[in-house]
């Protein structure tokens, strides 16, 4: 069944979010505003973290990498969706679909592990402050980042290795605005039960595994702070609330899409919008608007840019 790469399907057709032109025009405007905000917000975070020496610490190093992944996730799918909404040409080549799935799962798997690394950073900072710089050394940060990318790549390669050679002979319509494994596999002209199980097991393992590690780390942090006589529980809750918000927004759609046994297309599309348009905006907003150091650093950066502009004039 898998002895040949031959396929009669050379492209896939996205059914998109709506077939109504007025609704499509609204979605196009909505997506354009959010996409611009995502690019500007995450780019500003990355530039600020890189240029401001006051932010050269493990927490902001990891935050900059999170913004980079969020930016990549959005630009992987949203520009194509906007182009389809504008032109009505909702197709993608077979190779393009496979590549989109591959990059999507590399980025998704890497972000899950990166969020665990950020939780580890907060655990060390709150529970072991005297050893923070020793534990979260530059070498440790580089190791955590490399591990995140490596796990993301392995996660993606393992899944695609088994499904990329499935035979496709029609239909070729994907009821969404981007390619992903659950819909890709269902279009194959063969029994795909084992493949669907493998994808669910693989994605479910990394999603639930990293999510469980995050919950455990938060419980340990809160328990450690609760035992202290200084009464820092409210401060710890304030610090962790940003992380918890990001985790719920990111992991909720992932767990639903890959593990919910009764998928519904409208819900899948809504969750996709949350993943690619809402969460990448909230990440920089949550981590910067509630962070005094980041706000001061951004003001310094903007002030320097305005000063250079005045000098050039």
Question: Could you walk me through the main structural features you see in this protein, from its secondary elements to its overall organization?
Answer:
This protein has 313 residues and is mainly alpha-helical. It is built from ten helices and three strands. The protein has helices at residues 21-51, 58-87, 94-127, 132-135, 138-163, 181-186, 193-227, 233-259, 265-289, 292-312, and strands at residues 11-14, 91-93, 173-174. Strands 2-1-3 form a three-stranded mixed β-sheet. Helix 2 crosses helix 9, helix 3 (94-127) packs antiparallel against helix 8 and helix 5 (138-163) runs antiparallel to helix 7 (193-227). The chain is globular, with a radius of gyration of 22 Å. The N and C termini lie far apart (68 Å).
